[in-house]
Amino acid sequence: MITNKHKILDAILEQGMLPLFYQDSEEGSVEILRALYKAGVRVFEYTNRGKSALPNFKKLKEVRDAEMPDLYLGIGTIKTPADANAFIEAGTDFIVAPIVNPAVAEIANKIGMLWIPGCMTPTEISIAQEHKAMLIKIFPANILGPEFISSIKDLFAGQLFMPTGGVEINLDNLKTWFKSGVCAVGMGSKLISKDVMSKRLYDELFDNTKLAIDLIKQSK
């Protein structure tokens, strides 16, 4: 059963951020998800960035179903229809992509699934809109910066934007992004760092996630 995409979108807007990561370790992936959930995360993106992505995702879904029934679990870095179909079959709640692939949009739209494509130019944003993207990821946001959002938001009135890359757990940084016109931020390595993964710093991750959620509330 496909979860209502409007509910998932509302959950992302409410949370104000979309945490994302990938690691090869199944156990590590599960523990990171537990730490994020314990800190208050209710929408999360696992990324399709390694050989273990699909089996790890299936394990995360098992854990989600058993322990976290109110968590929306999505998959990111989906560039092809084959990837989209594989993770839809595995039970993803939504799809995030670093690019605009109309064939992936068609698959998602056909089943009423939220599809969040990545865009870097006004032309890409326009194409994403043509394919019914309700939320657009600005990527790589560390290259484009908040000024890009400020410059183009009036061209696409009403469109929801979420930057990924260059977003920090810092009040000034977050306020700058939200002031530019974004509705949420994607948080990857600035939140779930290599140190957190390799050294299993799950308590630190819990603390930083709670802090990020709090700072985002202050920044909106």
UniProtKB/TrEMBL annotation:
Keywords assigned: Carbohydrate metabolism, Lyase
Residues in coiled coil: none
Pfam families linked to this entry: Aldolase
Top-level division of the source organism's lineage: Bacteria
Pathway membership: Carbohydrate acid metabolism
Cross-referenced Gene3D superfamilies: Aldolase class I
Keyword Lipid metabolism: no
Xref: InterPro entries: Aldlse_KDPG_KHG, Aldolase_TIM
Family indicated by similarity: Belongs to the KHG/KDPG aldolase family.
Subunit structure and binding partners: Homotrimer.
Name of this protein: Bifunctional 4-hydroxy-2-oxoglutarate aldolase/2-dehydro-3-deoxy-phosphogluconate aldolase
Organism (species): Pedobacter jamesrossensis
